[in-house]
Amino acid sequence: MSSSRITCVPPVPGCELTRTVRPTFVAPAPASPALLATGLAALPGVARRRGRARAFAALAALLVAGCSEGTTEPAPETVEPRVVFVSNRDGNFEVYTMHADGTNPTRLTSTPAPEGRPAWSPDGRQIAFTSERDGNRELYVMNADGTGQRSLAASPAVDDNPSWSPDGRRIAFSSTRDGNAEIYVVNADGTGLTRLTSHAANDSWPVWSPDGRRIAFQANRDGTANDVYVMNADGSAVARLTTDAAIDQMPTWSPDGTRIVFMSAREGNPDVFVMNADGSGQTNLTRNPAADARPSWARNGQIAFMSMRDGNMEIYVMNADGTNPTRLTSHPTSDDYPYIR
Ligand SMILES: [Ca+2]
Ligand SMILES: [Ca+2]
Ligand SMILES: [Ca+2]
Ligand SMILES: [Ca+2]
């Protein structure tokens, strides 16, 4: 348990309060009677003159309208679960969450259609994912507990690979709505659709850098196999980061933005590689004869990925230098697309 400060804009005497943050934070906790009483004591004369009921209402309004979280500290974030993934263990592909040690797998979707490619919002309160429940692949967003599922920027084309901007306001994704896969950005409320790329090759798998200034992606612009590219968040200044003839794809940034982890088949089978954000220092982290793919880099430095090394698709975590790979799932069906935060 920890506490955080709530401050006021503009400053109001007595409005600064201390609140307890629960291990799993979903929404701001309602002020307790004790908290309200504490606050009332700081409002001179209110309770005496206007009566207890009206004073409580006044303080409640003050807490909503006058107080703003995050003016001195970031808003509280969800602690657990930290891994969202896709599995067909219940008959077809659905989105699940689990704790970072693999415990407490929880199914969030339940449709006859395939769901895929889940991505945490930066504050951990929402999950973007894809679903084919309306007949073709669309973007969806839901709360972290699976409630409130809604589609976003739907089109008859294939819409895929959502990635949140670090401020949580926008989602980058790929879509074939203009003829071949291009990268788009849309506001999290579905407005403001903007196309970022315009190239005859397939541009997909966009991932926002932690500082919000760049987007890494995969494309086959310079050959038949994908390579990893990076561009400014407005689509300008595209730069190629990998040049191997084999497939290089599925990039994800390190939490500090200095490195990019990706999948490459350059050593004969899919492995998880890491490189500096400028493309230098490309290094194989897995070196396993089975397929290793779809890495995701957690804030604590661990890298989650999918591997076939134990006979079917399972989810693993390892240290950022590739040491101590640890299996999180153990199920004969496919467990894939881990996104760890
Ligand atoms: Ca499904
Ligand atoms: Ca679609
Ligand atoms: Ca491998
Ligand atoms: Ca499995």
How does this structure look, described?
The protein has helices at 33-41, 46-50, 52-65, and strands spanning 2-8, 17-21, 67-68, 83-87, 94-98, 106-107, 115-120, 126-131, 138-143, 150-152, 159-164, 170-175, 182-187, 194-195, 203-208, 214-219, 227-232, 239-240, 248-253, 259-264, 271-276, 283-284, 292-297, 303-307, 314-318, 326-327, 335-340. A hairpin with a 6-residue loop joins β13 (182-187) and β14 (194-195). The protein is globular and about 45 Å long. The strands form 7 sheets. The protein has a 4-stranded antiparallel sheet with strand order 6-5-4-27, with no helix packed on it. Strands 7-8-9-10 form a 4-stranded antiparallel sheet, with no helix packed on it. It is mainly beta and 341 residues long. α1 crosses α3. The protein has 2 domains: 2-68, no CATH class; 83-340, TolB, C-terminal domain (Neuraminidase, 6 Propeller), CATH 2.120.10.30. Bound molecules: calcium ion (4 copies). One calcium ion is lined by residues 312-314, 329, 331, 333-335.
